[in-house]
Give the backbone structure.
Amino acid sequence: MGLNVLMYSLYGDAFLEHSYAYHLTRIDHRHNFSVYNTVLHLSSSSVGPASLGVESLAFVPQLFLAAFAIPLALAKKDLASTMLAQTFAFVTFNKVCTSQYFLWYMVFLPFYLPDSSLLERPRLGLAALALWVLGQALWLQQGYQLEFLGNSTFVPGLWLASMAFFLINIWILGIIVSDTGSKPAQPDVPSLAGSAEKKAI
């Protein structure tokens, strides 16, 4: 917060516009796996200033899941797996989702996978991996047609590929949430101040 205040004092409203408000109106539609891809493309071709359309509300389910529902339901079960679920939900529901975004949640996989149903039930794990890769391959095939061959594949091809990848990711998110939710709650860790008081007594 201190850095935000400092930057605002140096740059004023331009800092708020380019750091925060921009994300409400951005219309990146290239190389975007997001389910909002086609809507962003249509918005980018409109004449005049960017308006707050349906794509600007993308943050509502994203914020609800990543900042409230998932941490409230799972954080006391397994913190690392909860962070995986939060990040996975954030990327899945983001209106811009490119390949490098997947790295955001992959860093949590070593903490989640050892006790996951994806490894305990290899067929489920292989199916999840295969569908995740297939969803990307379908999208990339449509993206190649669009960007390299110049074919208009936005509707229905690219839109259907985006929907398929979105649904696959929701299914995988459900597995992660179910696995984490089935773990026993971890005991509360006593604060350092409390431990010091007990030792003093």
